[in-house]
Design brief:
The complex is a heterotetramer of chains A (about 100), B (about 160), C (about 500) and D (about 650).
Chain B lengths: L2 H20 L3 H21 L3 H25 L1 H4 L7 H20 L15 H9 L3 H24 L3
Chain C lengths: L3 H18 L5 H22 L8 E9 L4 E7 L1 H20 L4 H19 L3 H10 L1 H11 L4 H30 L4 H8 L6 H18 L8 H8 L2 H26 L1 H27 L4 H25 L5 H36 L10 H4 L1 H14 L6 H16 L1 H26 L15 H19 L2 H18 L1
Antiparallel strand pairs in C: 1-2
Helix pairs in contact in C: 1-2, 1-4, 2-3, 2-4, 3-4, 3-11, 3-14, 3-20, 4-5, 4-6, 4-11, 6-7, 7-9, 7-10, 8-11, 9-11, 10-11, 10-13, 11-13, 11-14, 12-13, 12-18, 13-14, 13-17, 13-18, 14-16, 14-17, 14-19, 14-20, 16-18, 17-18, 17-19
Chain D lengths: L1 H6 L2 H15 L6 H26 L7 E10 L2 E9 L1 H24 L6 H20 L3 H19 L6 H32 L14 H5 L4 H16 L8 H4 L5 H10 L1 H11 L1 H4 L9 H21 L5 H21 L3 H28 L12 H4 L1 H15 L6 H14 L6 H25 L15 H21 L5 H7 L13 H20 L8 H5 L1 H8 L4 H56 L4 H13 L6 H22 L1
Antiparallel strand pairs in D: 1-2
Classes of the chains: A mainly alpha (about 100), B mainly alpha (about 160), C mainly alpha (about 500), D mainly alpha (about 650).
């Protein structure tokens, strides 16, 4: 039996939720970043899966979106990590529980 | 599409991701993160999007993971071992997973097999990038440049 | 000609750019210059607008993102023109009222552009873009230039309106998924026979209602308003109450009424009750205030309650006599304009008092009439206009609203009339505390209106008298729009 | 001429209005110019009124109106208009003449006031608004002018702005009349909705003409009663009369203007104007709405006459007397004696203006003293004032033959006698006549007879600019009585729209003897009781509790303060509180629900996993902390909120499908 679209979606959902778990539960800023990257990857996987299982010939929209998403994720990771380093220098901690200056 | 390959990749990817999310030591988590992303890239290969898979490996495993490791090393005094864990986050994540699973399972018409597909060549992608997607591409270039400069400014500011 | 509206939207944006690069001391001048241009464009719009035609005019229509049904689709009818004119009056007034730096002026201009866009866009995506675009400058204006408690007030303002917007966006996504268009006119055509089926329709209605009710605001979603207006700097408060609050009323007229006629009819009594609660509770709460700015803020809720009363009365009964519906809607339109002018003027005067005295409590003043007769006289005009004295603008609108709503929903109107009484009490109490009695020690040195201030007040006061005595020139703008709306409802 | 004035009725109110606007723009130092402008404007208005009055004499039932479109809304037009008929014409002449006297009087009375020009601007504005009320051919225009009259009276009562009591009285007057006006407003809306027009007369289509009246049906009673609310407020009828005595805080000419000629007459005028609404469907001249009018009038007339007996302030006595007389007029209107009521209104306008100006002269002469206990013996010191005041007093008490009040009172009593419902109003009004004579005698004795007390010792006669209007008004009061005799019922027939002839035999009627007897009884009683004026009132000695009860206006102000006002203030405080804590909390509660689920990220393990069993107080404190922590800027909390939102969306999806 070949894997169906449903299976891919379930895998993607699982990956997303693991990412969410990391982002919500861990206190270290880097874990939050990792979690976000995972969620993005899960979205990318969805796009590719939908493209692959769409009636052919399909335009490569899914593929293109994923490529762009990866590029943006890279940018986001770079800025995020830069922030982590800056914050670390400033507060000497990367534990987000102790950073609550984002008060609104 | 090979179902055996699928199962193997799925197990590896999810296990690596779970490890990345729950391991105590940061550096281990970062390595698992890289592994998970290799798994995702493998999925892309499996789905016939070889180019995306390659990009995934290059960008994530080659760049982002390395960046993360560097960051961990730079902030290691504090980052060695991370104590806190919010269990409620796990609860919410689990609830959402249940919800998504329910939604996926009860949506009809998803149990389709993959149709045959003409291989997507890099040339095709390149042409699309330069024609239909030229504006997004330019914008993305701008975003990347801005992010690069921004990251540099953020990191350098302290020294000045 | 068709591009006049586009010009109207982009002049303030360009103005904002110029303001931010202008030398520090000239920012406000550049902003005022840009406002002069928008006033001219608005006047040109008025000049070329044909009041006899009911539908959209001066349409600009370009495809924008065809995949999701987004279009660059602008046009005006009587309602839009009225609000464009109001915006063009209130913004120069607000900019003149506040001595402000470049950042403030630039944000004000961005907000102005967003408002012009909101009032002329005929496609949901475009409309929503502008609708949200106005939120960010407003947030920043409160947060950065606000008074005491500005952080809390700004966050509250942002959260409330943003949550409302999210609900509205979701509803529109649902509508789009079912109907496949974001075009207001096309959606309105579906409205009669039910835009969405069953539960989904109610959900979409609730979402849009929530978004608009927060914006207006309608009781009990109004609690962000006193805090936000209290904290906002004078110029921003004038714009917030004068124009921004009208976005909600406009939304009710443009979206909720045509898209969900059936739902709104079923909910009619409840909605009327909310409007009456707005009127009565807000005026009572205004009575309970000792801070002038908060008091005026509550009265603003009360006056918008009259708009809502007229609006819901039109939809509340099954068979609407066109005479009454026309009266109510004309009243609502007039009230939109009147409240914009009058409430802005009231905030201006409160700002003047605060600027002179440093405080704005009801008990921080006393016997001002002896020291600053001109300020008191002009301020009384604004207050009497707000409490609906005949001869001033407030009366005409309220009379028409009540005329319509009394025939359509007599019981609710009879309760709502209490609001008129309480408003009078609130204002007379304020006048007694501020103007009469022995001169307060602390007010001994307060200067009267300066020359520049007189010139700022004069046009607005003339407008109040003009509308009060001969409202025809305003009514002509939207008479055919009202007639058409009533015909669609009937 | 008659056509010209009929088409240019607006000029009559435009002249004083323009005068007022010009005066308002003058600086404080241009006193002569201000007074001159106001008086010239008033003279012009008077001349124009006479010009309007003359053509109405031509034929019985004369009526001219000009209607115009105010504005168009939707597809309809809102029309206003001006109207000239006998009712309007006599009111015009009375208002402009009395106002003119008061304007001239004010020149002397206000001579030393700093805000002299402003005062004349307000006076002119008041006069213009009142003329508008009289001239209106549209209930809406009448309402507009009615409200402007209210504004002018607010400004005038609170004219001495430094006095906190004046400001409070002005506020009270405006708000209490506005309570009545709400009824008026609703009645107007109802009438508009039913008949589709607010014009009184419109060539057969007006609201007061057969076409309009037919469309009303049973709602006419309610409309009439709602409109009557306005009249109750404006004309100081029970239970809204409490503002009128307080309004004495204003300068005396204002009291004269408000209490004699204009503002208080507006309510009577309104009822007379829309009388067809009240009498629609009448059986033998009785409708439910008219019955209400009668009883309100009776209660007002008696209560305020009683209260007037126990007042010490010379102006307050007159104020309560006004309230009482207005009640009498209402009774007259209610029992069907519309013409009698209007005639009493006219006569009252003259003699009450005379009395107020006389009291102003007294106050002026006694150096701003208003307490009658500190006066006395002014008869010799202020002879002109005394004589004119006596004429006014006799007119008010209803001394027959030469004083206008007597004839009109006689007409009213005659009308009440014919009311089919009950005889009680008739006898109660007879009692009212005795009371009126009694309190006026009391006032006369305290002020003008006996020995000077207090500041009255240095009293002096007022300057001619103040006494001249007194003399003019006194002459008017006596001359007017000629027009009111039943021997030559010219005015009666004119107002009723019929022709009149002279019949001397009608002069002496049996009712006159009853009235004479009662008046004599009242005056004699007064002389007997108050023959030795002193610090203590005879009634205060014998019935102290009753006296105090009446002195404080039957504690009505206090009653309102403890009940209605206390309730309203409580409601205001409650809604403020609700707003700050309850509604805000309710709406935010939903938000809190979401975000507390989100901020569980922190709270959950601390409470459920680490802490174990804490006591309840600590849990409550933690809960408070949990809510306040929503405001802390933790990224993960926000993420948690987003995640919960997503869950909510999933649930929504589940519910929808």
């Amino acid at each position: 039996m070949n894997p169906t679209l449903q299976l891919f979606l379930i895998i993607s959902a699982a990956l997303f939720c693991i990412g969410l778990l990391a982002a919500l539960s861990r206190r270290h800023a880097i874990f939050i970043l990792i979690g976000i990257e995972m969620m993005l990857a899960a979205a990318g996987l969805n796009f590719i899966a939908f493209w692959r299982f769409a009636p052919q010939p399909a335009p490569p929209t899914g593929v293109m979106v994923t490529v762009f998403a990866i590029a943006i994720a890279a940018a986001e990771a770079a800025v995020g990590l830069a922030l982590v380093i800056t914050v670390y220098r400033h507060y000497r901690t990367t534990n987000v529980d102790q950073i609550d200056q984002l008060k609104g | 599409m090979n179902s055996v390959a699928f199962v193997v990749i799925a197990i590896l990817t999810l296990a690596a991701a779970l490890a990345a999310a729950s391991l105590q030591k940061l550096i281990h988590a970062a390595l698992c993160f890289a592994a998970a992303f290799v798994g995702v890239a493998a999925f892309y290969f499996l789905l016939g999007a070889e180019f995306v898979g390659l990009v995934q490996v290059f960008v994530y495993v080659g760049a982002v993971a390395v960046l993360i490791v560097f960051t961990i090393l730079l902030t290691r005094r504090d980052a060695e071992r991370e104590r806190g864990f919010h269990w409620s986050g796990a609860l919410i994540a689990l609830a959402i997973f249940a919800g998504l699973l329910w939604a996926i399972v009860r949506t009809s018409g998803l149990s389709v097999a993959a149709p045959w597909i003409a291989p997507l060549t890099v040339r095709q992608i390149g042409e699309a990038l330069m024609t239909d997607y030229v504006w997004p591409l330019q914008c993305l270039g701008l975003v990347l440049t801005a992010a690069l400069i921004g990251a540099l400014v953020l990191v350098m500011e302290e020294k000045g | 000609m068709a591009h006049l509206i586009t010009g109207l939207i982009f002049i303030p944006i360009l103005g904002a750019l110029f303001v931010s690069v202008a030398p520090r001391d000239y920012g406000r001048a550049v902003a005022l210059g840009s406002n002069l241009m928008t006033v001219l464009v608005a006047l040109a719009l008025w000049r070329y607008f044909d009041p006899a035609t009911a539908g959209l005019q001066m349409i600009t229509r370009q495809p924008w993102i065809p995949n999701i049904g987004a279009e660059y689709f602008l046009g005006i009818d009587g309602l839009s023109l009225l609000l464009v004119l109001l915006t063009s009056v209130v913004f120069p007034f607000a900019l003149l009222a506040q001595r402000a730096g470049r950042g403030f002026c630039a944000l004000m201009l961005v907000m102005q552009a967003a408002l012009y866009g909101t009032f002329t866009a005929q496609n949901f995506i475009l409309w929503f873009l502008f609708y949200e675009m106005s939120l960010i400058p407003a947030f920043l204006l409160i947060k950065v230039w606000g008074g005491e408690n500005r952080d809390r007030a700004a966050t509250k303002f942002f959260l409330y309106t943003f949550l409302g917007s999210v609900a509205m966006l979701l509803s529109f996504l649902a509508i789009y998924l079912v109907r496949g268009t974001f075009d207001f006119a096309a959606l309105a055509a579906f409205g009669k026979s039910g835009l969405l089926p069953g539960k989904l329709g109610w959900l979409a209605f609730a979402g849009i209602f929530l978004g608009l009710a927060v914006k207006v605001p309608l009781f009990p979603f109004h609690t962000w308003l006193p805090d936000a207006y209290e904290a906002a700097p004078t110029g921003a408060a004038m714009v917030l109450t004068g124009v921004l609050s009208k976005m909600g009323v406009y939304g009710f007229m443009r979206l909720l009424l045509p898209l969900f006629p059936n739902e709104i009819k079923i909910m009619g009594p409840a909605l009327l009750a909310l409007a009456v609660c707005s009127i009565v509770f807000a005026s009572l709460a205004a009575w309970g205030q000792s801070d002038l700015k908060r008091m005026v803020a509550y009265l603003s809720i009360n006056h918008l309650g009259y708009c809502m009363l007229g609006l819901f009365a039109v939809t509340a009964t099954t068979a609407v006599p066109p005479r009454e519906a026309q009266a109510a809607l004309s009243g609502v339109f007039l009230q939109i304009f009147n409240h914009g002018i009058t409430a802005a003027a009231l905030f201006y005067f409160v700002g003047l008092l605060e600027q002179r005295r440093g405080l704005r409590g009801l008990n921080d003043f006393g016997g001002l009439m002896q020291r600053t007769p001109l300020l008191c006289g002009w301020m009384s005009v604004a207050m009497f206009s707000s409490l609906g004295l005949p001869g001033l603008n407030g009366f005409v609108g309220e009379f028409l609203i009540f005329k319509g709503s009394f025939a359509l929903a007599a019981g609710y109107t009879a309760v709502a009339v209490l609001g008129l009484l309480i408003t009078a009490i609130v204002f007379l109490r304020a006048m007694q505390a501020l103007f009469s009695g022995p001169l307060d020690e602390s007010c001994r040195e307060l200067p009267d209106l300066r020359l520049g201030e007189k010139w700022i007040v004069l046009p607005v006061t003339l407008l109040m008298f003009g509308v009060g005595i001969s409202p025809q020139f305003i009514l002509t703008i939207f008479n055919s729009t009202v007639t058409q709306m009533v015909r669609l409802l009937g | 001429m008659s056509n010209w004035i009929g088409a240019h009725l607006w000029l009559i109110l435009a002249v004083p209005l323009a005068g007022s606007l010009v005066i308002l723009s003058l600086t404080n130092s241009r006193r002569t110019a201000a007074a001159a402008l106001a008086i010239v404007g008033q003279v012009l208005a008077f001349v124009l009124s006479l010009g309007a009055f003359l053509p109405t004499l031509q034929a019985p039932g004369y009526r001219v109106f000009t209607n115009f479109t105010w504005f168009t809304f939707g597809e309809q037009t809102l029309r206003l208009g001006f109207l000239l008929d006998p009712l309007t014409a006599v009111m015009l002449v009375m208002i402009t003449l009395v106002s003119l006297c008061i304007f001239v009087f004010s020149v002397g009375y206000m001579a030393s006031d700093k805000n002299f020009t402003r005062f004349f601007a307000y006076l002119s504005f008041f006069s213009a608004a009142m003329l508008g009320v009289v001239l209106a051919n549209s209930l809406l225009l009448l309402f507009v002018c009615w409200e402007l009259v209210g504004l002018a009276s607010y400004l005038l009562i609170g004219f001495w702005i430094k006095r906190p009591s004046a400001a409070a009285a002005a506020k009270k007057a405006f708000i209490i009349t506005r309570i009545g006006d709400l009824g008026f407003f609703l009645g107007m809306l109802w009438l508009y909705g039913q008949s589709g027009t607010l014009l009184f007369y419109d060539g057969g289509n007006g609201a007061l003409e057969s076409h309009g009246l037919l469309s009303l049906g049973a709602s006419a009673t309610f409309i009439a009663l709602l409109l009557f609310c306005g009249a109750v407020g404006k004309s100081g009828q029970f239970p809204l009369h409490v503002w009128l005595p307080d309004a004495m805080e204003g300068p005396t000419p204002v009291s004269a203007l408000i209490h004699a000629a204009t503002m208080v007459a507006a309510g009577i005028f309104l009822v007379a104007r829309v009388y067809p609404l009240f009498s629609l469907g009448a059986i033998a001249g009785v409708t439910p709405s008219l019955t209400v009018v009668v009883w309100i009038g009776v209660v007002t007339a008696l209560i305020s006459a009683l209260i007037a007996l126990a007042q010490w302030d010379i102006k307050r006595i007159l104020a309560y007397s006004t309230v009482s007389q207005l009640g009498l007029m209402m009774v007259s209107l209610g029992v069907g004696g519309v013409v009698a009521g209007i005639m009493h209104l006219l006569a009252h306008g003259f003699f009450k203006a005379l009395l107020f100006l006389g009291s102003g002269s007294v106050i002026h002469g006694c150096h701003e003293e208003q307490d009658i206990r500190k006066m006395g013996g002014l008869r010799g010191r202020m002879p002109v004032t005394f004589l004119t005041y006596a004429i006014g007093m006799m007119a008010l008490s209803g001394v027959p033959l030469f004083f206008s009040g007597a004839w009109t009172k006689e007409e009213i009593l005659h009308a009440t006698l014919q009311w089919p419902v009950s005889r009680a109003p008739h006898f109660l009004m007879l009692a009212g006549v005795v009371l009126t004579a009694l309190y006026m005698t009391r006032q006369m004795i305290y002020v003008f007879f006996g020995h000077p007390r207090g500041s009255a010792e240095h009293a002096h006669e007022s300057p001619p600019v103040m006494t001249a209007p007194l003399i003019v008004l006194a002459v008017c009061v006596i001359a007017f009585s000629v027009m009111l005799t039943p021997a030559w019922p010219w005015l009666f027939r004119y107002l009723a729209g019929a022709t009149a002839s002279f019949a001397f035999s009608q002069l002496i009627q049996p009712g006159l003897f009853i009235a004479l007897a009662l008046v004599v009884l009242g005056i004699a009683l007064g002389v007997l009781i108050y023959r030795r004026p002193g610090e203590l009132d005879p009634m205060e000695q014998s019935l102290p509790a009753l006296f105090r009860f009446l002195q404080h206006g039957m504690w009505l102000d206090e009653l309102y303060d403890r009940t209605v006002l206390a309730f309203a203030r409580g409601a205001a405080r409650t809604s403020d509180w609700l707003d700050r804590y309850f509604w805000d909390g309710l709406v935010r509660g939903f938000g809190a629900l979401g975000s507390s689920l989100g901020s569980f990220t922190k709270g959950f393990d601390e409470r459920a996993i680490n802490a174990g069993a804490n006591d309840a107080a600590a849990a409550a404190r933690d809960l408070g902390g949990l809510i306040s922590r929503r405001h802390s800027g933790q990224i993960q909390t926000y993420l948690g909120v987003v995640a919960v939102g997503m869950l909510a969306l999933l649930l929504l999806y589940a519910w929808l499908t």
